[in-house]
Amino acid sequence: MKVELHCHTNISDCPLSIEAVLELALEQGVTHLAVTNHDTTKGLEEAIETGKALGIEVIPGIEVSGYDFSRERRVHILGYFIQPGHWKIDALCQPLLEQRHRASRKMVERLLAAGYEISWERCLELAEGGTGVYKQHIMQALIEAGYTDSIYGPLYKKLFSRGQNGEEPGIAYIPMNYIEAKTAVKVIRLAGGVPVLAHPGQYRNFEMVLELVEAGLEGIEVWHPLHTEEHEQQAAKLAGEYDLVMTGGSDFHGSYGEAPVLLGSKSPGIEAIESLKLRKERLGV
Questions:
Q1: What distance in Å separates the CA atoms of residue 230 and residue 114, rounded to the nearest whole number?
Q2: What single-letter DSSP state applies at residue 111?
Q3: Dist. CA 65–CA 179, nearest whole Å
Q4: Distances 177 to 65, 174, 190, 237 between C-alpha atoms, Å
Q5: I need a labelling partner for 241 at 20 to 30 A (CA). Which of 138, 214, 219, 285 fits?
Q6: Residue 75, strand partner residues
Q7: CB atoms within 10 A of CB 205
Q8: pTM
């Protein structure tokens, strides 16, 4: 059995629909798949029903965009077996979705002022059916206009770099006000979900694990395409130390991803699903 616990669709920043992602999962031998779009539970009921028709167990999930304010680092929190449409999640995430969409419009306005010949209308078309325009949609519009041939690369950095390590920010960089990561953990639990720290190696979140555990964290993503062997070892060590479920996933974004990945390529095994279900029962949610 191949398990995929980190996957996006066109409801956030992947060009493929729920149906297309699940059909691809079927082709690639995935039997259990968590849909974890950014900051929304939109489409989860559809995903569950489509999965049943294809013989794939769909786990309703989310990936909340959080922040570690003491260390000034982004922190993403995955939630599994979450209740779709729960008002606590909507109250937490809807302002973030609206902020991201407004920021994307400002990005496009800056690009237009800099002479890039793209349109906001095209970005809206590329994001149709989702929760708003992401940088990936803007980059796709730039690809179509002939400015680059890839989502990520020199142009992406030039436009959207955060300006770390003394570098100047990109010309279209708009800062976001993210959610406190510990609050994200607590709200996921209130919405019936099992909170798991996503790709801690990518965002250097290992130092925050104890704080997140104290807030109610139940798992840690050990296997991820951007994790090194050292990251995996460190995540596994923390999982043992704090009794956390070890999960993994490809962080699938289709052609909008940083690197080509196969669904289920970072499968943690069916044991991870069983452990997450036990945690949900233990939480009594």
A1: 42
A2: H
A3: 7
A4: 10, 10, 22, 31
A5: 285
A6: 66
A7: 24
A8: 0.96
Q: 3-state secondary structure string, 115-128?
A: CCCCCHHHHHHHCC
Q: State the virtual CA torsion across 55, 222, 35, 44 in degrees, nearest 10.
A: 100
Tell which phi-psi region holds residue 196, choosing left (phi > 0), alpha (psi between -120 and 50) or beta.
Answer: beta
> Among 26, 27, 83, which residue's Cα sits nearest to residue 57?
26
State the chain's maximal CA–CA distance in angstroms: 56
Spatial separation of the C-alpha atoms in residues 135 and 163, rounded to whole Å: 16
- H-helix segments, the chain: 18-27, 44-54, 87-113, 120-126, 135-144, 154-160, 181-190, 200-203, 209-215, 229-242, 270-283
Per-residue pLDDT of the chain (285 residues; tens, 9 = 90+): 899 999 999 999 999 999 999 999 999 999 999 999 999 999 999 999 999 999 999 999 999 999 999 999 999 999 999 999 999 999 999 999 999 999 999 999 999 999 999 999 999 999 999 999 999 999 999 999 999 999 999 999 999 998 777 678 999 999 999 999 999 999 999 999 999 999 999 999 999 999 999 999 999 999 999 999 999 999 999 999 999 999 999 999 999 998 889 999 999 999 999 999 999 998 876
Indicate the SS3 state at residue 212: helix
- Distance (Å, whole) CA 35 – CA 110: 33
Q: Is 245 helix (H, G, I), strand (E, B) or coil?
A: strand
With contact defined as beta carbons under 8 Å apart, do 23 and 143 qualify?
A: no
